[in-house]
Structure formats: C-alpha cells, structure tokens
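Cross-posting from the modeling subforum.

Setting up a comparison between two proteins and wanted a second pair of eyes on the formatting. Protein 1 (sequence, then structure tokens):
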Amino acid sequence: MPKLRVKTIMNSAAFCAVVILAVTAWPMNGETFAMLATENANSAAAVAEPVDLGLSVRWADFNLGAVRPEEYGGLYGWGDPTGRKRSTENSDYPSEVPQREISGTEYDIAHVKWGSGWRLPTRAEQQELVDKAVWRKTELHGVAGYSVTGPSGNSIFLPAVGGRVGDRVSYQVDGADYWSGTLSEDPDKAYYLYYYIGEDPTVGTLPRHYGFAVRAVIE
C-alpha cells in the first residue's frame, strides 16, 4: 500500500456477527461492486497448516482470520494482538517507541492467536519469499491473487485483500498488503510485503496504524 489508489471506500462500514471490517462499493464500468474484508466467524478455532516451500521457514496455507486459502481474513494494525484497533495514531501500535522486532512476542497477533510456534514473518523472511519463490497471478475459487511457488515445488495462495486505514479499505481485488514483524528505520513505520495484480511483489514500509493482512510462518 505505498500509495492510495482509486477504488477506495466510499460507503460507511457495517458490522455483523462475523467481524466485518469494511463493506465498500465503487463504480466500475458503469456497475457497482461490493467487497468485504472479513474475519470468518469460524476462524477463532482454525489454525493453518504449514506449507514447506523449501525456504528458511514454512508458510501458513491461509491468512489469519480466514479458514481457507482464498479468504481474506482480517486487516490488522501492526503490533495490535487484539486485532480490534482502528485508531490512526501510531502510538497505539503498540506504543510510542516499539521494539525493533515483534515477531514471536506478545505484540505478534499470529503468535497470540495461533500459538504453537506460529508468528509474523520477519522482513528478511518476506524478502526471501519475494526473491526465491515464483509469483504467478491467478484466481482461486473466483478470488484474485498470486500463487507463490517455492524451490520445493509447493505453493501457497495470497489473495488480493487490499489494505486499510482506519475503517477505509483500499484497492481490494487489485493488490494486497501483508505485515512483517519488523520495525523500519523510521520508528513510525514497519516493513510489509505488498503487490499489485500484474506487478512484481515488493517489501516496503508504511505507518504502523495501517491495517494489513497477516500470513504467518513457523519454523
């Protein structure tokens, strides 16, 4: 999410029994499309299976807050283990001056929610995924995203979940943002992996209060 693109949210958020982060609508080719960024109601009891891509860590087969690879899951602020914060103040994520690496700590939502060795990837582990895996744009059950195939020949699917600022979700179906656990050199920002459909994936930095997806890793 290095820039806010068109197709940003124009309608207000709605909340239901499943935790709906945002319901959006925008015109496209004369029509209106509605998209959801949600946590599956059954995700509290769901823990991913690790996929061995032939890299230094194994990657979860679905996003935190989802139960299937094509589901978006939640969009979480960096360092928010509750997953519920919507503040746009960096000091809430998780403090004014956070530690350099939160992967595997009390501020790591994947570690808190899934336990058993699961954690946020580090910046280096995300960069390894970018550099050593083959990324191919595709759809899984009608959901746009990327198939990511590692040196082992195994693959994971990263859906185009978009990203969030406050309650506003941007460029869903066009791209995706995934947090790492690593603070940037600018302490107001943290590292994340992002892509736009049809473009190469990249690791960059953005403010900690942004809401991004989480694809966890395990040793």
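Protein 2 (same layout):
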Amino acid sequence: STPIGEVTTTESTPIGEVTTTESTPIGEVTTTESTPIETTAVVTAVKSVYVKADTTYAFYYNTEKAFDKAQIKGAELHIVYEKWTEDATGAKLDTTTYEETKDISGSVDFATTPDKAYTTEQGVFLYNISLAYTGEAINDAEGKAIISAGDLLKNEDGSIASAQAYIGMKGDTNLDKIVDSRDASAILIYYVTSSTEGQTADTVKLTTSELADSASSVYDQFAAFLSDVKFDKETSRYAKKSEKTIDSRDASAILSFYARSMTEQYSEMAKNDADKLWDIATGKTVEEQPAEEAPEEG
C-alpha cells in the first residue's frame, strides 16, 4: 500500500485494448474488464482497369474492310486493386493499393473497320480508332468479370484507348474527297518537278492540299499512298513517299477511273464497288463490255 496507489482499467474496443490508470489515496488497485473483441474483415476490390498500348499510325483506303493489327505493337493490361480492413461499423482502415499486369498484345483489335470509320466530311482524314479486348474473360477472386471480349479498352485517365489511322479515297491526290482530273494534274506536276535536277520526292510537295505544309508532312505522305494507284513497286501502307513510284502512269489510271465513273455503265460501280473499277482502270482486269442486243427476227 502507498498513499498514492493506482487503479488500472482495461477495456476492449473494436480496434484493440485501451488501458486507463487512476490514482487513489488508499493504495494500488488494478481492475481489468473483459469484453468480446470484435473481429474485422479484410476486403479486396478492383479499383480500376486500364491498358498501356504501344501503337503507330497507318494509311488506309476507305474501301478496306479491316485495320492492320501490325499497328498495335504491344498492349499491357493493368488491374489496380484496393485492399483494406473493415471494422464492424463499416469504416475502412489501413487502405492500400497494388497492381497486377497482364500482357494482352495478342488479344487486342480495332473496334471498327476503315470503310465504316470513314466520313465524307471535308478535311477529315485522321481518325482515332478505338481498341477492343478480344481475349477470354478475366475474372476477379469472386468470379466477377473484370474485362470481357468486346469491351473497349481504356487509358489510365479513363479515355478510350485508340490508334491513329489516316483514311481516304484511292486516287484523291489533292485530298478533296473527289477523284477527278485535278488529282491527275497534281501528280504530273509533282512527277516533272521531282525529276528536275536537284529535286527529289523529299523536297517536292505532291498534294495541293493546305493540310500538307511541306514535302515531308504526314499529309503529303498520305497523299502519296492514295496516289500510287498503279503499284509499280510493291510497298506497304507504312512506306514513305520516297519509297513509292508516282508518275504519269498513276495520273493516266486516275483519268481512266474518273472518265469511266462519269458514264452510265460505271457510275454505280464507282460508288458501290470502287475497287472493281480501279482494277479496270489500272489494267488488272478486262473492261466489261455492254451486252449486245439480240437481232430482231423476221
């Protein structure tokens, strides 16, 4: 016994034990009260899902039925989890986050096609094409789908993941969304000028469109893709203007396409099956001959 003893009280709370000590004049008294310790739950949930996609741009005709998956160099899916302790009142305690990553490069495709993405709006050739997941569903621990086939992929900021595509009409050198003699004329001027001593494809601008501010502009490269209708030298949609052969033969083929498109025989083909008419204009297939009327009997 001492003249300034202590009284100690210990109580259980939802988050642990609290011990209080009180001084008394009659000595030391310690009292411990036990109550059921309330348990807590550990909860894990998906906070967000996003993709980091490595893509490049490419050129397309407005008649193409598929985008080139070679544009998608790689794609990594990030699943962000949130983990916390939850007490009996539902309060979150000790919240932490962590990520899991998954390579989905082989399970990403474009959500549409060039022929569907293309519009006739003047001056619009660059399109951001949404990317979609095409693999098997990825589920969380409870079996709930985190991402399923057909879902659009999102960037970390929540925007839709996409790849850039330039889409236009074959033969549209001046980028006015019409194929006519002005395109052929632009090619002839480019061909003559770039053949002049001291000039090359890298120094001479092809298109007359104001969208291209120089010979190296991406829009001039795009115009070269659209203008190389004869394919004298096999090149890809990623090839530069200097890698292509654009000359009087392309101009002649464009004039041939234009002239036929203005006739009754080919006007519908030019609108609905331009590739078929291009095959005729470039000499890949034989021109259709109108059916001869049978002679009248008698």
